[in-house]
Write a structure and sequence with these properties.
141 residues; alpha+beta; 5 helices
Amino acid sequence: MSSTSTVRIRAAVIAGVAVLAAFLVGLFLLLNRSVAPLEEAAADYLGHLSSADGHAACAAMTTKAQAELAATYRVADCPAAVGKLLEHLTPAQRNELAGTDTRFPKASGITGRVDLDNNPLGLSHLVLKDVDGTWLIAELK
């Protein structure tokens, strides 16, 4: 094989590896961009809960989830239900809640799921729904 052929083969291999690497980086960035809002929405929601801001927490929920939470605690509205949900937590536990890991979101169409680490509320995951381009909490599990 001539040295020109060897150089061309090496150049083709390097170009192929570069194209594959660019594809993989692009795919990673696309996937990260699609799930990052889920992670952010879940972390924001837990932050609202940890600061006992029932109005902000409820604003981050779907209307159906707000109604279900209020019905679960047999109170008139969602902010009152958030108060009931949090009433047994100490300030240290509320701080712990704010730090709950939300780094592993999954999305499928307009539905998302964020698994949660061990937390004072005993939640295993949050189900989110894309409502007009905004991820809202649809279920607490």
